[in-house]
Design a protein that fits this description.
Helices cover 51% and strands 25% of the residues. By secondary structure, it is α+β, with helices and mostly antiparallel strands. Helix 3 (89-99) runs antiparallel to helix 4 (102-122). The longest helix has 40 residues, at 2-41. It is elongated.
């Protein structure tokens, strides 16, 4: 009787040890998975920049957004790009580059560098007074129309009507800038054709 009870106790201990080792193995696997996810995320974090104040309600999904959101983002881009002085030009450029899509980052960085050198050389101040903003959510684009004002050494030298096209991509519910440039007219079809032609010309030059 004692022998049977002893053998039963041994079997219970064996099962308990087996369950314990299985639990330990599961914890080890879980720990390895957490470490793998943590390691893969190192260096891949992304800083998303949005306007400090969103004045109108909007909606956004994984691949599109409302016209109000696109317009506010476009106005934020124009503020960072066109409302500059020698003192804040570098700071605003750094903020804008965080908003740029990786494919546009290099070209935008070069464009901003050239503009900053010109602003510093001429001691210039620029501002863009937006009068009309048109959005095309189906192509994630906005055309801003307004007056660009330029002063050199405190003296106004320019106040002219201009149109600027801003295009975005939506990644994970956040907008990234893929194009911002002056266009000839406030028509989306013509503006897109103009930018595509410019891109083709640049490819031929390269």
């Amino acid at each position: 009787m004692k022998k049977e009870a002893y053998e039963a106790d041994v079997q219970i201990l064996i099962r308990q040890n087996r369950n314990l080792w299985m639990a330990i193995a599961g914890l080890i696997v879980l720990l390895l998975m957490v470490m793998a996810v943590t390691w893969s995320s190192i260096g891949s974090s992304r800083t998303i920049v949005t306007p400090p104040t969103l004045e109108k309600s909007f909606w956004i999904t994984n691949n599109t957004a409302s016209d109000t959101y696109l317009i506010q983002m476009a106005q934020w881009v124009s503020y960072l790009t066109l409302d500059v002085t020698p003192d804040n030009c570098k700071y605003k450029s750094e903020i804008l580059l965080k908003l740029a899509h990786p494919d546009y980052h290099g070209a935008l960085q070069q464009k901003l560098r050239i503009n900053a050198e010109k602003i510093a050389r001429d001691n210039a101040t620029t501002s863009f007074d937006v009068r009309v903003a048109k959005a095309a959510p189906d192509i994630l684009a906005v055309i801003l129309t307004g007056y660009l004002k330029v002063s050199i050494n405190g003296t106004p030298v320019k106040n002219e009507l201009r149109h600027y096209l801003a295009r975005f991509s939506i990644d994970g519910g956040q907008a990234q800038l893929i194009k911002f440039k002056q266009v000839k007219i406030d028509d989306f079809k013509a503006a897109l054709a103009e930018t595509e032609e410019d891109d083709r010309d640049k490819e031929l030059v390269q």
